[in-house]
Design a protein that fits this description.
The chain is mainly α. 74% of the residues lie in helices and 0% in strands. It has eleven helices and no strands. Pfam families: TetR_C_19, TetR_N.
Length: 207
C-alpha cells in the first residue's frame, strides 16, 4: 500500500510516478521490471521511491487495485443503467473490458498482468491490504443487483453467483489478452458461457 508520503503528494506528481510505473509494467513482466527505469522516467531519486512504496511489487499491486476499483465502478454504473439486471450488465461490462486492449496505455499492462497471474499472485491480491476496499466495492455491487431477475433466494446465493460469473469473466479475459482472440470470438465465447449459467444446465425431469 502506498505510504502516506505518496498520498500527500500533489496529484500531478502522483500521476507522473503512476504513468512511469505503468509504462515499465507494460514493457516487461513484473519480475523483469526495473525500479531504475521507473524513477528515471519519473525524474525522482531512488530514495524518494522508497518513501512512497515498499518495493516494485507494492507499486504493481497498487496499480492492479486501481484497475479493479475502476472496473467495479464501471460495472456498478452499468448495473444502474440496466436497472439491476446482472446478465445484461455483465455482457456490456465484458465488451467494455475487451475494448481496453485497443488503447495502448492499457493493452500491454493488462496483457502482462493476465499472462503472469498465477495462484500465488491471486492469493497475494486476495489477502493483501486492498482486500477491504475491494470488499466494499463488491458489497455495493451486490446491493445494486435486482434479484427478481434471477432464480435465487437471497443475497447469499447472489454472492455465489457473482463468484461463478467472476471466474468465467476472468478466464475469458485471459483468452482475450494472452491468446489474442478477436473481439467477435471473445464476445461469442463469453456470451455463450454466461448464457448457459443464465439458462441453467440441468434438464427438467419428465414425469
Amino acid at each position: 500500500m502506498p505510504k502516506q508520503t505518496f498520498l500527500s503528494l500533489p496529484e500531478d506528481k502522483q500521476n507522473t510516478l503512476i504513468q512511469s510505473a505503468k509504462k515499465e509494467f507494460s514493457r516487461v513482466p513484473l519480475h523483469e521490471a526495473s525500479i531504475a527505469n521507473i524513477i528515471k522516467d519519473a525524474g525522482i531519486p531512488r530514495g524518494s521511491f522508497y518513501q512512497y512504496f515498499e518495493d516494485k511489487e507494492d507499486l504493481y499491486y497498487y496499480l492492479l487495485n486501481q484497475v479493479a476499483q475502476e472496473n467495479n465502478k464501471k460495472l456498478n454504473s452499468i448495473l444502474q443503467e440496466k436497472k439491476g439486471n446482472l446478465f445484461e450488465a455483465l455482457f456490456e461490462q465484458f465488451r467494455y473490458m475487451i475494448s481496453l486492449r485497443h488503447h495502448e496505455e492499457h493493452n500491454d499492462f493488462l496483457r502482462y498482468a493476465f499472462l503472469n497471474m498465477n495462484h500465488r499472485k491471486e492469493n497475494t491480491m486476495a489477502n493483501n491490504i486492498y482486500k477491504e476496499s475491494l470488499k466494499n466495492e463488491r458489497s455495493q455491487t451486490l446491493e445494486m443487483v435486482d434479484i427478481s431477475f434471477l432464480n435465487i433466494e437471497d443475497k447469499q446465493e447472489l454472492s455465489h453467483v457473482i463468484r461463478i460469473v467472476g471466474a468465467i469473466t476472468f478466464h475469458n479475459l485471459v483468452q482475450v489478452f494472452v491468446h489474442d482472440l478477436t473481439d467477435e470470438e471473445a464476445i461469442y465465447n463469453y456470451e455463450a458461457q454466461i448464457s448457459l449459467i443464465k439458462k441453467g444446465l440441468q434438464r427438467k425431469e419428465v414425469d
